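Below is a filled-in request sheet from our internal design queue. Each sheet records the structural input a requester submitted and the sequence that came back. We keep these sheets so that new team members can see what a complete request looks like end to end.

REQUESTER: design group, bay 2
PRIORITY: normal
MODE: inverse folding
CHAIN LENGTH: 196
BACKBONE (tokenized):
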């Protein structure tokens, strides 16, 4: 069976931590779901809203992300995100995913410049913070929940290249989805740069 580098790395840390935190089987269950996320396009586009409606503010990044997310959700796109012991966080495209997209540019810039960054998934019902701390080729990701749900484990260790690939891949898929809908947002920065 093929395994992704992040999943393999997580299992390695889990197995070697069993002396302090319980049995190997329990650890493997806790580490079976590593942080991952992706935007899933529909087989066929269904667009009950008009993407050609004039935009209110061409320079408000958060407004554009929210509007673009609403367009993608209306077209049938889905968003998957899971990790920290929970296979699926049940996040929608229209609002939940937009909180992650909002934080992508600053998170990527911070990781590249200082090796640390965070993104606040503040939507109601999700309400958790992801903090990233890079160490050479690895990155520690800590999940801090503000809800009754608690991450188990609260810390994951990933290859930095895999995290960067997921983040830039999500940005590219978001922009490409808007282009597929012929949304004018796709022609604005930074979104037009995300497809290059």
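RETURNED SEQUENCE:
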């Amino acid at each position: 069976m093929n395994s992704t580098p992040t999943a393999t790395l997580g299992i390695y840390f889990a197995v070697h931590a069993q002396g302090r935190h319980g049995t190997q089987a329990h650890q493997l269950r806790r580490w079976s779901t590593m942080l991952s996320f992706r935007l899933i396009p529909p087989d066929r586009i269904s667009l009950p809203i008009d993407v050609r409606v004039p935009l209110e503010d061409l320079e408000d990044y958060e407004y554009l992300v929210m509007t673009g997310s609403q367009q993608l959700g209306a077209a049938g796109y889905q968003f998957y995100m899971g990790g920290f012991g929970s296979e699926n966080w049940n996040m929608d495209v229209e609002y939940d995913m937009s909180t992650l997209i909002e934080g992508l540019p600053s998170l990527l810039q911070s990781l590249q410049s200082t090796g640390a960054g965070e993104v606040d998934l503040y939507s109601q019902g999700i309400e958790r913070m992801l903090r990233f701390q890079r160490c050479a080729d690895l990155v520690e990701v800590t999940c801090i929940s503000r809800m009754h749900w608690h991450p188990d484990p609260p810390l994951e260790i990933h290859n930095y290249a895999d995290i960067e690939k997921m983040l830039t891949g999500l940005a590219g898929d978001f922009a490409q989805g808007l282009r597929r809908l012929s949304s004018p947002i796709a022609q604005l920065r930074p979104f037009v740069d995300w497809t290059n």
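SHEET NOTES:
- Residues 1-22, 24-31 have pLDDT under 50 and may be disordered.
- DSSP finds seven helices and six strands in the chain.
FILED BY: M.R.
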